[in-house]
Specification:
Length: 141
């Protein structure tokens, strides 16, 4: 059970700290300069974890397994990061910005799961989406 729960707990905790950090980037700092620092630190931490927890895997062998996904993921992550930084610079609040984004993300992923991965599109999920959208109305009033 712990193997099922800890990854989600890590994502939740990381998202909370992430939002605090994104909102705390100095207003006068260029968001892309901030991301250079962010990704240098991220690369260093990833390298440490690879060598400490990698189980003796060879870095060159692992990098040879690269397909399109890590490359596109790098581009997409920059979009996420800079999007949040600009959203906070534009005045979005942490409490509402993330909820609005998450609700639309949930709708988008529901259809993505259905169209790309043949995941079931049930009435419970559709009703959940409607409830999310109604909630957005209340949050943004």
């Amino acid at each position: 059970m712990i193997n099922y729960i800890w990854p989600v707990a890590l994502v939740v905790l990381s998202n909370i700290v992430y939002q605090i950090c994104a909102k705390s980037v100095p207003a006068e700092m260029n968001p892309f300069a901030s991301l250079i620092v962010t990704y240098l630190v991220g690369a260093a931490v990833s390298a440490v974890f690879f060598f400490v927890l990698g189980g003796g895997a060879k870095l060159t062998r692992e990098l040879g397994k690269t397909n399109w996904a890590p490359l596109v993921l790098g581009i997409v992550i920059v979009g996420l990061e800079v999007g949040w930084i600009y959203a906070y610079k534009a005045g979005w609040q942490v409490s509402t910005g993330f909820i609005v984004q998450s609700a639309f993300l949930a709708v988008g992923l529901l259809f993505t799961g259905f169209l790309l991965y043949r995941e079931a599109l049930t009435w419970n999920k559709v009703i959940g989406v409607v409830i999310c959208l109604i909630g957005l109305g209340f949050i943004n009033r």
